# Entry
Amino acid sequence: MIKKLAKYVKDCKKDTILTPIFVIFEVIMEVMIPYLMAKIIDVGIQNSDVKYILEIGIFLIVSAILSLAFGMLSGRFAAKASAGYAKNLRKAMFDKIQTYAFENIDKFSTSSLITRLTTDVTNVQNAFQMIIRILVRAPIMLIFALAMTFTISAKLACIFLVAIPVLGFLLIFIAKKAHPNFEKVFKKYDKLNRVVQEDLSGIRVVKAYAKEDLEKEKFRDVNNEVYTFFKKAEKIVAFNSPVMQFTVYTCILLISWFGAQLIVGGEMQTGQLSSLITYAYQILMSLMMLSMVFVMVIIAQSSAERIVEVLEEEPAIKNKERTVKEVKDGGIVFDNVSFCYSDEKDRTKFALRNINLEIKPGETVGIIGGTGSSKSTLVQLIPRLYEATKGRVKVGGVDVRDYDLETLRDSVSMVLQKNVLFSGTISENLRWGNKEADDEELERVCKLAQADDFIKQFPAKYETVLDQGGTNVSGGQKQRICIARALLKKPKILILDDSTSAVDTKTDAFIRKAFREEIPNTTKIIIAQRITSIEDADKIVVLNEGRIDGVGTSEELLKTNKIYREVYESQMKGDDEKDGKEN
Amino acid sequence: MEKKTKKSKTVFRLLKYVFTIYKLQFFIVFVAIIISSLANVMGIQFIQSLIDNYIVPLIGNENPDFSSLLQAIASMGAIYLIGVIATYIYNRLMINISQGILNKIRTEMFEHMQTLPIGYFDSHSHGEVMSTYTNDVDTLRQALSQSIPQVFSAVVTMVTVLISMFTTNVYLTLVVIAMVIIMTFVSKYLGGNSSRYFVKQQEDLGKVNGYIEEMMEGQKVVKVFCHEEETKKKFDELNENLCDSGAKANTYANILMPCILNIGNLGYVLVAVIGGILSVNGILTIGNIAAFLQYVKAFTNPLGQVSQQMNFIVMALAGAERIFKLIDEKPEEDDGYVTLVNAKMENGKIVETEERTGLWAWKHPHQDGRITYARLRGRVTFDDVVFGYTDKKVVLHNISLEAKEGQKVSFVGATGAGKTTITNLINRFYDIQSGKIRYDGINIQKIKKADLRRSLGMVLQDTSLFTGTIKDNIRYSRPEASDEEVYEAAKLANADTFIKHLPQGYDTVITGNGEGLSQGQRQLLSIARAALDNAPVLILDEATSSIDTRTEKIVQDGMDKLMNGRTVFVIAHRLSTIRNSDLIMVLDQGRIIERGNHEELMAKKGMYYGLYTGAIEIE
# Structure
């Protein structure tokens, strides 16, 4: 996994390598300084040798300045490297997600992708900075400081040889013990967030049913769980500082005791004793830091795993090596097509079964069917948003798998059922269809989609700024902007997936009329709940539970198809009466 | 200046939590930190006296007697042990305190949030509120459990060391103080820059996250329009900005520590040189200088720690400010005193009862102490109601209407005409500016909000489902309902068939607002929910908009059954569903412009006629 993630260091390689190098220099200075300080006490002060003090003092000042310089440089490089690394990771993930097919997106779910791109990257970034700074710093500090203690007194240094493994063992023991508890805490945290999230998005339901107390109780429960587990985990970690202190103090006492004997025996000087104690701090501190890094890396590990998952996901739909770059016409053929969603546990559960259908270029085709009859699934196979499990889908006489994806999707324009407008002006949103389009072109498609009138009524007209998700226009207006956006592509095939449900019947009729007159050569596929939206289509397909139940014109189906007749009658009843009144 | 007082107010409030709940524990922590720090400082002094008083006298001694040394070390060991125990105690107790406070703060936040008016949720994005629960509480946790004890212990150490310094030598202490002043300036400069860029980083992170959110939500549209490259380009730009501010913020934070430590080192040299000169002149003893130099080190180390923690504390305070802002948000006002109670008839009189009888009554306490009961019937009247979301812009003008018990009242009109708003006034999601809304003759301002809403069943525009089983979700409206009642309600809403087709039937767990269910299915669940609620007044807000016609027909049958004997307010897309309404209100720009039943309105050949014949757009 580290290998996989290390790849993304890329342009931060220089900073990433320079960081530990300067850390090493910094550490050398930090180890030097106590040594020089000891000299000042042992030689300079003991002998009241001001000249010596000045000499060593200058050394010390130089060392301090160097240490400062190195420290600043390593800090700077570490910050640059880790920020850059996080940037690369985010970019790599974002770019990867852009290659995903619908299937991949469904697999991860939108919210999980968001967490992976945000929180998980931050965790890994922090761990990365820790690794290149502390993970280098601590062992080197340990080694240098230990080496210094050996030069001062090999005998006393042996104390550390015992203390280091003992403390190391204890710290790792604590970290290991605490880790599973922290994992639990994170899980509970997720649950807590979910409760808040659901409460926020369902606040109207909560209030409408006056269920605030129920929500409070739900929250209290999970909050208490977080509290309990967090306390449990932190209780273990609370041993860290005392254990650390205990070891340091023990070392100090041992050094004092044995050191005193060595001094008395003439083997050591008093100043050396105090620098030994300084080194004791440095050695054990670096162990402490190591254990901290250890914990952080463990925490970041699961984040890293989640990131790697995104990066390693194979796009379910890819271009072939040799692709067709032109769509001849808008003819569509479904050749014995079956489809099932891959995340379905048993692949026997087909959403579409043995679909055979031929649509000629320029035809208008209506698709009707109940909830869950897989109408949307059927049309999403055409621009290859999903891939047929069995059988073939052909556009312009060519299997959709043979096309270059961009070519195919540029020729097949689709207005999704759950459509999205992005924050930005209306014209920016429209230009998603074609970024080179000029203003006249925008106006033309908007007129086609019957959107021009209302857009022009906004004070800022085409430059009206839409909120995220386009919440500041009505449902019907949103749908018409989406249709205009799709038209701007000048597609050979236009698919409207229940895209006029919020548009009134009259405007709906205008749109269809415009389609008929202005883009007669474009194949139009319309999914609708409303019979009037598809009644005059060249061909109507009735879908039922993933199978074609009937194909034909409205008149034919009225005679032959029971489902169609039922729907027709339930919707047209009112109109008959209305007509009666008008006459 | 104002900012400063705000900050100190935040600190004060946080301290209040500590003192009110954990007075004793915090006192113990306080003492333990002092003990722990003192043990540390005593250790430094001990080493000095160890050299001067125990080791030096023994030097040159033929037969050194180490027993007094052993004694000194043993007593120091005892002090250290006390220090270690004190350290453990304060670390351990701080966990109680910090976790306890966080638990309390989170609960307060959430419980307060439940009392906030709908308007709050309209004007704050979910992401914004969520981040208060996650990021802000988390930074507060770090500050409470780590930064504050560390800073406190550092301060105690520094003060004791400073006192020791003063007693050793005043001049040298002044040198140290001068050094501290320099350090303060440096850390103020670096810390200021650092927190400035941290704020910038937070902003940029917000932008990146916002963009990610928007694009992930719209990922399928991105695919359909082959817009991947453009999307990447915009992302790169934002990502670059974040990287830049992040690098800067962390740079300043990273170099703060080396700066402080090395200024400390320079101070050390200065003290050594001055001390050396003084000792040559006999003003200071060698032991004194050695001790003093140790003090300098003991003084600068915690200073470095404090400067490191300052960033966390500043961030935590900013988080706490946001937390308190949420807690201080003005709650929904509820002066209602009329409550809804279960009732039964005794000798032709309504009597309050505990059990669920199916008969409800308004319990109306009067000023003179009298309590009257009125049967819940479901008559709703609007009397010259004026409403606007803000005082400036009026959305509904002089609305008057009457829905008699059991009547079906429908609202039609274009988007923004105010249909949904009217229904949101009945349940008091929003409060009206003037006029009166009465429920069974009682001004709804007098009815306790929870009870008012309990008496209203709602099927809202967007179906909100909660993680849990299908059964739990239907039961949301009435948690005490039996399984049979749940099945009945589902059958009534015609949700039963599809539920039975799910892998675990009614026990199928749904997550994330019902991912995997179609929009139609989700709405069926929400209708079932309302059916179970069995309230005398129903509000159906575009409930059938995305159910296909066949299902809709089935739903409509169930709905008709459900509506039977209830007062119903309907807002529907399709006019066919409201034809049988007793009263149809045609709204235009916040005014009722036509009213009557279907036949009357058709005969009028006005707006309704236009809508019905498709000449005018509904949505």
User: Anything to note?
Assistant: Residues 574-583 of chain A have pLDDT under 50 and may be disordered. Chain A is about 65% helix and 10% strand. The two ends of chain A are 76 Å apart (CA to CA).
